[in-house]
Structures are given as structure tokens and as C-alpha cells.
Amino acid sequence: MSTSPARASARLSPQSGRWPGARARLLPWLLPAAVLTGWQAASSAGLVSTRFMPAPLDVLAAGWRLAGTGELWTNLGVSFLRAATGFLIGGGIGFLLGLANGLSRLSEGLTDTTVQMIRNIPHLSLIPLVILWFGIGEEAKLFLVALGVFFPIYANTLHGIRSVDPQLIEMGRVYGLSRATLFRRVVLPGALPSVFVGLRYALGIMWLTLIVAETISASSGLGYMAMQAREFMLVDVVVLAIVIYAGLGKVADALTRQLERACLAWNPAYRAA
Amino acid sequence: MIASTLRRLDPTSLPAAASRRTAPPAASGPGTGLAVTLRGLSKDFDGTPVIRGVDLHVPAGQFVAVVGRSGCGKSTLLRLVMDLETPSGGRIGLDAARAGSPTRRIMFQEPRLLPWARVIDNVAVGLGEEGTARARQERARAALAEVGLADKADQWPATLSGGQRQRVALARALVSGPGLLALDEPLGALDALTRIGMQDLIERIWRAQGFTALLVTHDVAEAVALADRILLIEDGGIALDLRVEVPRPRRRGDPDLAALEGRILDHLLGERAALPETSR
């Protein structure tokens, strides 16, 4: 049954006992902090050439500088908007097609083979074609992000619907639930954990696609900012862009977690600690 | 009807003690039950007959237990009556004679609760879309109180024990006031003490509501303790049709019940003892 993750995530030691409150919250940041400190120390001691690897404080200064001129915020905003729009389009289509194919044999027979064939093309290999079609305009980036995000959402939605406990569906039928109610109360909530798995994958692919697309063909955005900096040998800005990617990834992940906890509160595996 | 039985129940007394109380509920009797009539009912799966031409009449309000060895077709019989399988031949007649409710409800061997719905909402599933959401909640709450779980209304099913989940499933089956309640080995997965508690609970609610009950079980003692009538199924047909005349409330270990249980077991085991001879 779909409640099985409870067992999968069971930890051997209950966290609450030995790592109460604040300490448990700080624990995940221990390693990043140690790496940063060591890196700064190595740079200050001259062990690492700042020509190739700037010190953390230099990166921070670059961030401060670019934030001051507004360049950072503009590029960040542009990238965010592209990511979100592409994600909504591709994810929305993937979700709807996943639902349709999970619920209707006809729809699946008609589209699934085609989708599987397209899925096996690395979507980034379409970049040359996309540039020919759309130039370096917004459409090119949106198209690539939407295409990349589509597949994990589609596949996991379909799988989620397929794996809804048939005993529950039989129960719903024999208790006289209408098709619409059966979908809303049994099928959709049953598929949701799997949809969330797709969502997480899709978020990763979303950033990857966008950054690659912006690095290759763009006149704004984070990827463009990093490429420009390389031209002028501004290593600190290049590293700044990479650090921002890490931060954005973390933010997206944290948001998904919150959403999971809200939507899957019934599942012991997702309940807030 | 649920509300009327509710008042009789002291919510702190757990099912185990409840039915031993002496006075039988006044509202009992065949008023709300569905009469079930089977005529030449048969079912085969891929050419293999599972039910062979069963004729049966169950009067409204009767408590019938169906026993038999595994694979004899007793569950299939129940699923046919519940419209979960299509018969290969014959007819099923359901007759709500007087004020009977046409609703059929089933309790499965597993609770089959929606893990993403709170206990109260799981019970409300039994009401479908009838009435306002508020009225549904109220009736669900009353049904929960009847099975002694009023305080669990807002919990997730995952937090309940196996016996509690099965009681929620019982409340869901009963909340709509069904005319026929089918029970497909609903207590098979419970421990012995919990099972006895559940048996008493089912008997008490059946006596208060007067629905027709069809209990499929492999536990002969359970059949003898609960039923008005016991059907022994063998090779897809009714091999034995026994009345249980022992008055209620029945005491576990009553000699009449024990004698009856022995007779049924003899029949079941005699069949096994006879097997090597016939195969020779």
C-alpha cells in the first residue's frame, strides 16, 4: 500500500532524544560551514591561487557589488521567471497527460508510445534546433525547460495513478461513490506521493536546463551573467553564480518539503518531526 | 436509528462487555432488513465452476453465517450477492419488504480505510453524497460513538490499532443504515480477545438495527456464537443448513453451542478424513 514509505524512512535512532531543537537544526549546516572556513583559510594562507578559485569573502564581495548595481537582482528575477513559467507549462501538461493516461486506456494507447520515444532524446540535444527555431529569445528557454520538466511529472503521475490500491477503489465502487468522487477522494490522493517524487526530479531538471540554455544562448539571466564574467576573467562572479544555484536548489527543495508535509500529513513518513 | 441505539451505549464500555447485558434492545427485529433470494445461482471462473446452482432464501433481518473450508466458494457467494461479481447463471433477488433500506454494505477482511482521510471522513464515505456535509459529519460521529471510537474522530487511520481500524470500517458500513450487511471474514486478522469484542459489538448493533447479516467466516465458533442460521458450503453448494435455536444473549462455552460447533466441525473434518478413501 502507499503507506509503506513509513517503513522505508524509519530511522534507527530517534532524533529527538540526542539532538534536541536548535542543535538538530544546525547539524546539516555544519559541513558547509566547515568547507567554507577551510577554503577561506587556504585562500588567505596563499595555498590556493585566487586567479582560479576566489576566496569565499571575495565571492561575498562580488555578490555585494552586483546586488548594489542591481545587476544581480535583474538576472536572478529573469531566470526565476523563466524557470517558473517553463515549469508551470511543462509540469502542467505532464500532470494532465499523466492523469489522462492513468485513467483512460484509449488515451494511453494513443500517446504513451510517442511520449516514451521523445523521452529518450536528451532534451538538451535540441538546443541547436531550438536556436534555429526561436533564436535566443524567451521561447527557446521556456520550450527547453518545459520539455525537460514534462517527463518526470508525466511518468510519476502515471505511475502514481496506476499504483493506487485496487482494494480501495473496489471499496469506493461498492460504497457507491460516483466516478468524480472516486477520483477526488481515492485516486488523486493515492497518486499524490508519487507526483511529489516527480515534482522533485522536475525541479532539479528545471535548473539544469535553464542554466545550460542561458549559458549557451541568452542576453540575460544567471547563466548569462556567469558567461559574461568568464569573458572578463571575473572568477568571483562565476563562483557567485554557482553558489546561487546551490542556494536556489536548497530553497526549491525546502518548499517542496513544506508542500509534502501539508499534503501528505496522513502519511507517517512525511509527518513533521 | 443509529441515534436511538446510541443512547443505549455507554461509550466507555468496550464491546467485550456490552452484549452480555441482559435486556434485549426493544427496537430489534426485522423492520429494516433486506430479504435475499438466490435462484439457481452459479458462477464459474474460466470454465471452473465455483458456485453450482445455489437456491437460498434469507428472510429479512436474519443473521446467516456461511462457513466452509477455504476455496469452497463462500467468499464468491458473498461477492455475488454484493454485486462485486457477475453471476454466470441464475438470479439474485433483493427484497426490501416493508420499511427496509435497499442499501447493501460490505465489510472486508481488511479495513480498507482511506489513509489520507481522517477517521470521521472515512466513516462519512459510507454516506456517499446524501444530505449536507454537516449532516453527514453528524451521522458519522454518531456511528463512531456507537463503535466506541468517538474520541478518535480526527485522527489519521495510520495511528489506530488493527482492531480500531476494523471498528471504523464497521461504522462506515453501518452509518447509512443498510438493509444488508455482508461481512467477509472481517475479524480474521484480529487477535482472539479483540475478535470476541468485535463479535459482541456486531451482534449488539445487529440486534438494535435489524438489518440482514451475511457473515462469511472460517471460524465455526464465531458462526455458532453469532448466527441464527449456519450454511455450510462445500464444492460450491449448500451442504448443510442449520438453525441455531440457542437464545440470545449467548454465553461463550454454552453446551448447546459447543454441541452444534462439534457437529459442524465433524462434518468439515469428516470430509477430510474421507478424502484418502475416495482417492484410493
From TrEMBL, chain A:
Where in or outside the cell it occurs: the entry states: Cell membrane
- TM ranges are 80-99, 120-136, 142-161, 205-225, 232-248
**Record keywords: Kinase included?**
no
Q: Which SUPFAM superfamilies match?
A: MetI-like
Question: Where does the ABC transmembrane type-1 domain lie?
Answer: 72-256
Instruction: Provide the membrane topology annotation.
Output: Multi-pass membrane protein
Grouped into one coarse class, the protein's main location is: membrane
Per the record, the domain of life is Bacteria
| Coiled-coil residues | none
Provide this UniProt record's keywords sorted from A to Z.
Cell membrane, Membrane, Transmembrane, Transmembrane helix, Transport
A Pfam family matched by this chain, by name?
Answer: BPD_transp_1
Is Transcription one of the keywords UniProt gives this record?
no
| Family as reported in the entry's similarity comment | Belongs to the binding-protein-dependent transport system permease family.
From the Swiss-Prot or TrEMBL record, give the protein name: Aliphatic sulfonates transport permease protein SsuC
What species is given as this protein's source? Methylobacterium isbiliense
From TrEMBL, chain B:
List, as start-end ranges, the regions of compositional bias called Low complexity. 12-32
Q: Where is this region: Disordered?
A: 9-32
ABC transporter domain mapped to chain residues = 36-260
Supply the alphabetized keyword list: ATP-binding, Cell membrane, Membrane, Nucleotide-binding, Translocase, Transport
Name the InterPro entries on file: AAA+_ATPase, ABC_transporter-like_ATP-bd, ABC_transporter-like_CS, ABC_transporter_ATP-bind, P-loop_NTPase
> Which is an annotated Pfam family here?
ABC_tran
Q: Which PROSITE patterns match?
A: ABC_TRANSPORTER_1, ABC_TRANSPORTER_2
Task: Tell me the superkingdom of the source.
Answer: Bacteria
Q: Which GO molecular function, any one, fits this protein according to its record?
A: ATP binding
Q: Where are the transmembrane segments?
A: none
Instruction: Fetch the SMART domains from UniProt.
Output: AAA
Q: Belongs to which family?
A: Belongs to the ABC transporter superfamily.
Against PANTHER family, the record matches this protein to: ALIPHATIC SULFONATES IMPORT ATP-BINDING PROTEIN SSUB (PTHR42788:SF17), TAURINE IMPORT ATP-BINDING PROTEIN-RELATED (PTHR42788)
Put simply, this protein is called Aliphatic sulfonates import ATP-binding protein SsuB
Q: What is the lineage of its organism?
A: Bacteria, Pseudomonadati, Pseudomonadota, Alphaproteobacteria, Hyphomicrobiales
Gene transcribed to yield this protein: ssuB_6
